[in-house]
Amino acid sequence: MNLNTVFFLLITLRLALAEPTNKKFPENFLFGTATASYQVEGGWNEDGKGENIWDYFTHTYPDRIANQANGDIACNSYHKYLEDIEMLKDLGVHFYRFSLSWSRILPEGHIEKINQVGVDYYKNLIKALKENGIEPYVTLYHWDLPQPLQEKGGWPNTDLMVDLFADYARLAFTLFGDQVKYWMTFNEAKQTCQLGYGYGVFAPGIQSNGIDSYKCAHTVIKSHAKAYHIYDEEFRKTQNGRVSMVIDSDWFEPASDSDKDIEAAERKIQFTFGWYANPIYHPDGNYPQVMIDRIAERSKKEGFEKSRLPEFTSDEIDYIKGTFDFLSLNTYTTSMVKWIDDYPIGNVGYDNDISVVAYQDPSWNSSASSWLKVVPWGTRKLINWVDKTYNHPEIVITENGFSDYGELDDEGRILYYQNYLSNILEAIKEDGINVTGYTAWSLMDNFEWLNGYTEKFGLYQVDFDDENRTRTPKKSADFYKKVVATKCLVNQCED
Ligand code: PNW
Questions:
Q1: Does 491 reside within a domain?
Q2: What CATH number corresponds to the domain at position 43?
Q3: What local confidence, expressed as pLDDT, does residue 377 receive?
């Protein structure tokens, strides 16, 4: 691409987006940025850390990752976390969302063997954050299951995993809870379950679409609820923190205003967001009725003895619902949804259970990631849907961001943040929705799962060819820093 073409594309990009609002974020609105252990830490086998499913997956099937990359060293945050904190300080963010590596703390996954050096790593990180006035937002599980637990079946093994996760969560509350006040049990369980145990493209690479992926979700939801109750009963009084589970969703826009397309789009979001959110965040609890009905019906026709979707007992429904102190939402993009006749019985799977057509408009602006189109208005609609469907919870956006190829002059990322934040602000100010925080994904370029180091989401560039993993601020870091400081997205905001 020559410079003229780039210039032309940026102009069209600007024209395609509405003017960002000149309103200001509320005084107490919180801004942060995020990473995850496997994506940034490195130190994969240092100081007693055990192997996790991403270590095993990237080492055993290197060809499944772009350029055979892995997270062995990644951003080397295991050694460079103090530099990361300097970056956070410079950005002026209120909080840093990061995740604990389960196998760094418990090398074999269970609490009989604790790795003190791993514990100290997180204690030091948390202490340094607090000393610099940055609130730690801690995710317990961002996809890196200890490999020994996968060897016993992993997440689809409900009987094994609920108690093991509960033990791990209790240990984390005990070790870090005097300093950590914001906990997220799971990050984007849909990616864990559907990509890891359904399509089998993510670690651990199990292909059991619509069977194990549903069992996995069942386990995760129960594990979350148990961890929440442990916090409630054993820690809340003394530690006074807040617990949530991060669920991701695109916005799904009906392809037309026909009743059928509207029904199809609603079904799609119930199968993606509702799958995890309904049992926890909906006042009635349980899976969405549309999932229960459709999966039962198709399972029967397919000759299964009972529904492929596991059932919660009524006691379990009561135990799980309401296990949150705020709703945490990751969102990046939008798809259009069109009604079709149900897929014929034959192929068992999640997408057949849904039976809709989802697509992205070719005119939408792209990022470097095939799935991530820039559709800021979709976020406002999603926030409105979440607010209405789950009875007006407090919402924190726990991830949102844009990928490119790592350039320092990252105008595309600035436009993305400016316009997504503008829509979030309109949801607060115009639609009256209680969004209280926003998290930019990501603090720095990192290991982007199957895409290795080819797609970059960072506010800071990381030089992966340099053994120092030098970090350099991008233009978007300056933009975000200004937004955090002024609560304003444009040059001049109204008062
Ligand atoms: C999130 N999709 O994952 C994760 O929480 C991060 O670890 C990740 O780096 C970030 O988004 C950017 O990808 C997603 O295919 C992965 O729709 C894939 C999808 C969405 C989110």
A1: no
A2: 3.20.20.80
A3: 98
